[in-house]
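Changelog note: in this version the structure field was regenerated for every chain. One regenerated record is shown below for reference.
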Amino acid sequence: MVKSNGNTRSSLHSAKLAKNDEFYTQFADIEKELYHYRKHFCNKIIFCNCDDPHESNFFKYFALNFNFFCLKKLIATCYVGSSVADMQLSLFGDERSENKTTRTPYKIEISEVPANAERSFGLADVEYLLGNKKNVLTRLNGDGDFRSSECVELMTQADVVVTNPPFSLFREFVGQLDEHDKKFIIIGNKNAITYKEIFKLIKGNKVWIGMTPMGTDMLFDVPEYFAKELLANKKEGSSYKIVNGVIKGRSQAIWFTNLETKKRHKKLKLYKTYNVAEYPKYDNYDAVEVSRVAEIPVDYDGVMGVPISFLDKYNPNQFEILGSNRGVDQDPNGVYGRGSHLNGKETFKRLFIRTIKSYNESQTVNV
């Protein structure tokens, strides 16, 4: 069990100051990804453990689709550092002084949602749900940190964890899920693929990419103060976009999951054949460079270096992931080190793969 202590608590406060940790997922992006998992959600307990119901679209989405997914229960916990305090104050009858904002960490458990619920969500809707005796709002003893004992206990009771965790704590968040063998659908930075802690799980077929293509441009709601900073100091199109007059933060974010999907077992159709001229060998590896996933040769049996976007097409029955060019500590055999070079120049991030000769297209998983 991951326990909180003074150092981790301090690190979480530091994380809340990290701008990428204040990116709030848009409802449309959640809807686009999660409707694919209806079979996985049926009669299950969903836990959103980084989500204030007033500002979290994950909570709103599951509350609005509670009956569609036939959920057993929806649980959400709020960290004490949540940027929205008004809701907690109102629900608990707390007060805010002129000079100090009081934030109340709490959990909300939804076990029943009326079939005629409106397709909108705000404070009034949460209060309406709490009018049902089967739904409960409770103060937390601690601060709502996902690593606290009471939040970990809630996680052990849940079937699936679904949230957008703080990017700065992504390694620790995924490590906790893996330690407790939890099913999950979460958002993380695309660069997390090459983190040694995450890559070993991908390589071991314990984590993979969700249904939304990796190249999808994900935009996020951000606090007003941060929106002003983006507008003043960052470049439009790369760090933010303006949609209908609203500044949206932009991040290289993708979905990670360990729930089976049809996409994960779809055959990647190959059309190119291998030739020495088009597929040069690396200076420092016994592997050939394949700069585009679509150009993986159909007839090459050796090791190939491919872009990380390969994970969007990765079928574990068709290919084997061997390593990465982002650190020898990702490869227990020490074959792949730091960087891959062609004619003395380093390439971009690469995954090293090999085609499975015994692949049979009839090898499918019922999802």
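Spot check on this record: The longest helix spans residues 6-17. The two ends are 31 Å apart (CA to CA).
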